[in-house]
Amino acid sequence: MRAPYATSENSQSCQATSVIQPTTLETKHRWTCISGNVTLTQNWTVASRLTGASAALSRCVVFSEHPLSVGSPFEIKLVSHNPLFAGCLSIGITDLNLADDNVRKNIPLSIKRIPANVWYASGNEVRYNSTLLQRSMTSLEWLRVGDRIALELTPARTLKILLNSEDMNIQFQNVPNDVYVVVELQ
User: Which residues form the signal peptide (predicted)?
Assistant: First the structure.
C-alpha cells in the first residue's frame, strides 16, 4: 500500500497549520470552545492562529460546536499556513462534556491534557488518550494548503480518518455517543 505522501516536497520542513476551516460546502459545522492563541471568524467556521511572537510558541485547541453524528462527516480544509509557526495539527474526537460550564472555562492547551477520553492522530501517530496505538504510513506533518481531513463516524460506531477523501487506514472502534471533534494547532 502506498501512502498519499510517501515522498513529499515538504518533507524537509513541516508546514505549520495556522488556519483551518470546515469545507466551504458544509456550513453547519462550526467551531466552539477555544483555548490558546486562536480566533474564530466567518460565523465561527474558520479557526485562525493569532500572530505575534508569543503565539508561535503556544498550542491552541478548538472543538466542534455539536457532537459528531453518524453519516455526517466533519471535514476541515487547510486554507493557509504561516512558516513562522512550529508544527502541524492533531485531530480527533473527545467525549469531554462541553455542556458543563466548569469544563468550558478550563479547556487545556493540548489534546494530551484533555481530562476525558480522546481518540486522535498526531503526525503519523494514532493515539487513545496518551497511549500510542499504531503508526500510520501517512503523516499530518506533510499537510499543504488545500488539503482536507475528514472524520467520519459509521453506524457501527467506528471513527475513520480521511485525508483528501482517501482512507488513512486509521480507525477507532466502539466510539461512544456525544463525541466532539477536537483539533490542536501546534
Answer: none
Ramachandran area for residue 112 (φ above 0: left; ψ -120 to 50: alpha; else beta): alpha
Contacts of 85 (CB under 8 A, 6+ apart): 16, 17, 18, 49, 55, 56, 185
Write down all domains in the chain, each with its CATH number in brackets: 17-185 (2.60.120.920)
* Type of residue found at 129: N
* Whole-structure pTM value: 0.78
Q: How far is CA 157 from the centre of its chain?
A: 19
